[in-house]
Amino acid sequence: MVLVLALGDLHVPHRAADLPPKFKSMLVPGKIQHIICTGNLCIKEIHDYLKTICPDLHIVRGEFDEDARYPDTKTLTIGQFKLGLCHGHQVIPWGDLDSLAMLQRQLDVDILVTGHTHQFTAYKHEGGVVINPGSATGACSSINQDVNPSFVLMDIDGLRVVVYVYELIDGEVKVDKIDFKKASTSTSAP
Amino acid sequence: MRRLAGVEDEEKWLAEGIAGIQHNAFFMHRALDANNLREVLKYSALMLSELRTSKLSPQKYYDLYMRAFDELRQLEVFFKDESRHGLPVVDLYELVQHAGNILPRMYLLCTVGSVYIKSKQAPSKDVLKDLVEMCRGVQHPIRGLFLRSYLAQVSRDKLPEIGSEYEGDANTVMDAVEFVLQNFTEMNKLWVRIQHQGPGTVREKQEKERNELRDLVGKNLHVLGQIEGVDLEMYKETVLPRVLEQVVNCKDELAQYYLMECIIQVFPDEYHLQTLETLLAACTQLMPTVDTKIVLTQLMDRLSNYAASSPDVLHEFLQVEAFAKLSNAIGKVIDTQIEMPIVGAMTLFVSLLTFTLRVHPDRLDYVDQILGACVVKLSSVPKLEDARAMKQVVALLSAPLEKYNDIVTALTLSNYPRVMDHLDDGTNKVMAMLIIQSIMKNNSCISTADKVEVLFELIKGLIKDLDGTDTEELDEEDFQEEQNSVARLIHMLDNEEPEEMLKIICVVRKHLMTGGTRRLPFTVPPLVFSALRLVRQLDSQGGDITGEEVSATPRKIFQILNQTIEVLSSVPCPELALRLYLQCAEAASDCDLEPAAYEFFTQAFILYEEEIADSKAQVTAIHLIIGTLQRINVFGVENRDTLTHKATGYSARLLKKPDQCRAVYACSHLFWVDDIDGIKDGERALLCLRRALRIANAAQQMANATRGSSGPVTLFVEILNKYIYFYEKGNPHITPSDIQSLIELINTEMQSDDNGNRRIHSDPFFTSTLRYIRFQKQKGGVIGDKYDLIKL
Lengths: 190, 792
Hints:
The complex is a heterodimer of chains A (190) and B (792). Chain A is mainly beta. Chain A has a single domain, classed as Metallo-dependent phosphatases (Purple Acid Phosphatase, chain A, domain 2), CATH 3.60.21. Chain A has helices spanning 21-26, 44-53, 97-107; strands spanning 2-7, 34-37, 57-59, 73-78, 81-86, 111-114, 120-125, 128-133, 150-157, 160-169, 172-181. In chain A, the strands form 2 sheets. In chain A, strands 3-2-1-9-10-11 form a 6-stranded mixed beta sheet, with helices on one face. A 5-stranded mixed beta sheet of chain A has the order 4-5-6-8-7, with helices on one face. The radius of gyration of chain A is 15 Å and the shape is globular. The model of chain A has no long low-confidence stretch (mean pLDDT 93). Chain B has helices at 7-33, 37-49, 58-80, 82-85, 89-95, 102-119, 124-134, 141-155, 173-193, 203-226, 232-249, 253-266, 269-274, 276-284, 292-309, 314-319, 322-336, 342-359, 364-379, 387-403, 407-411, 416-421, 425-442, 449-458, 460-463, 476-490, 498-512, 520-541, 554-566, 574-590, 594-611, 615-631, 637-652, 657-667, 682-707, 714-729, 736-751, 764-777, 781-788. Chain B is an all-alpha fold and 792 residues long. The model of chain B has no long low-confidence stretch (mean pLDDT 89). Classes of the chains: A mainly beta (190), B mainly alpha (792). Chain A: Belongs to the VPS29 family. Chain A: Keywords: Protein transport, Transport. Chain A: One of its GO terms (biological process) is intracellular protein transport.
């Protein structure tokens, strides 16, 4: 059982003051093995904060990030899964599933995590799973008017991943989960 | 020249004294066993003579005293048992007065006196009075103090307190109090005198000795505090006035300080409350060298705790007008002690404020009053430079923040900003950060323009360069932290009422514009997004309310936004400005304001053309432009054409061929929007793809020419995916054979290079793309049919 926290689009301090207190109290150091972040933190303070939750932090560049050195895309292997990470402003049309599927094929990953739309989604398509953890602070977006703060926790266990999405709705944290199974260990099936 | 006694000398004398006591005690015990009164008296007097020494320091004398004390206990047992010595206690009392020297005489007398009182053959008060007066005969400070201490010890359980067996018509509590007061007074006089003996060189040694002795004096106050029957009335009328009289009149700094502390610690808080005026008056009469601040602080702390102990107590505070009295006393102390450094005055104010916040938290007028007094004091010095005083002022300003979790309350204190004005620039910023942290921690929301104005005045040290500051001096990280705090703060300013919210935004803008080019990149973005939030709120509420004069309209706000983002050109930060313009463009489009949206795009394009030269920055910028433009539906045909034409042109002119290729095929989406009303110009979309293909080919040829081998086929596969995308969406201009040709092309590219060698065995991207095609074929229905036409 490997816990992976996926979050992004915090936009601190441009569009939000901080993570919601209820989220902060849930994100306790030492419980999570990896963090993958879709970008747009935007400042070093948030980077440092995420590092305290888990030192294995993977992050890609959002268009408002202060640190221009983050890569545009990143791939990593956790257990049996290959994960891909990209902020998403590079994939046009923004939020379009088919275009994201193309990126997924290009990166050759089972799970693609992207952001930019500030809307939680988790799609299974032919090539794998696309997950968008939404905005952890509920920052406003031109794409999505009604943003609830959200983040995703993935529990990777063998060939199975359970995706837990945490959303702050009207002051209460609501949790939902989705199950995904991988067919086999090899990713590119002929 | 007289040699000062060294430690070794004292040890020797002590040893000698102890030996003397032991020696005489031995014979005394023999006499006790024999019930020989004469011998007992003789040897006990000799033993007690050791206490006549003047060579020992208090610590050592105490050692000696304790030995004697233990022996005297046995002596007392003997005196008590008339059957052993045959003398009635009255006669014994007479007999011991024949001892040669006064000190042994007095110790014996006190011991017999104890027995006398116990026998109840004389009223307790009479004996006590006799003893306390006769002790006057010993005027040597150390010897006198220990003697009177002995008297106090043996008399303790024999005082005629209420409920004691020694109480009666002739003996009252008053008598007990009188006795203790008198002993106390005499002991204090003796104690104070130590300072006045000996030359100045030994003064330091004497101070040390005095401190060692002070508990002997203080004990009397403890006793007074414990006597049964001393009620508030008696305390008020007799005990306190007499004690204070001695305290003030002795004019001794050490004694005054110690005794005031004692009084405050020993007696109950309700008594202090009821005698507040008297206590405070005494405080102002103390010697100027006494640290009255600490005394007053201790008093206020105790009263604060008392107030916290139970809510019923509070009305007592109001009844005695505690605050007014304390406030006046403090004012008087500060005024009269003109040499008191500013830090002292500030410390007093902090104590008073702490007291007020605990006892009268709802009285904001009291709090403001204290701050006002502080301002007056601070104005009397030209410039505040003492770091410790500064710290106290910060503590003074922080206290209301911590108490009233709502910053808005602190903002109503009229003297608060005035106090802040007296801080130096560095401390001012520290305070400003504390204010912001308080707001963030408590999640406070400041919701009116007026309050925002006050708040930004308070934190002006962070907002702009104050006179005399040089921002160059500031550590870069600290500066960023400051500015990011201000940025975060902006999100705590909110009001649901659009008119008020717009006012708030304008106030904030006014202040931020004074920040200078170093601050703008931090502070402008949150302001912009705050304004955009308002715009979207207005838009969702359903447009202008016709007939009413409202200033809060999207159009108006976009004007403000335009002017605001423009200011960034002075920094300059074109990349940030471009992103902000695009955000505004999309918002304007959602509000159906075509001219505003077009204007924002124009500004963004100008920045792209003129200010963004870095290739990597250009790539990101062009994708943002394309991505935004793709989503905008407010433009008429002409405007849209102009903008898309420009965007495609920029894309084709990026420096690196792969970047060109990708940007150009991204432009294909400008001509095909998947909405119901979206533009679906299949031909122009395909034109983009073909152009991208040409660029990809050119890129391959360049790679061949420069490196002798082809580059990767990624670009081709990407374009293939786009062909498939539009084919699936129903672009009539894309045929299955187009796709097939492209697949062949890729295969060819993969198989050989110029020299006919087999190069790339497989490309995962290509493989998964083909897999996707096969998957779609199996779907059945319209999709399946479509894909069936593609021959692999």
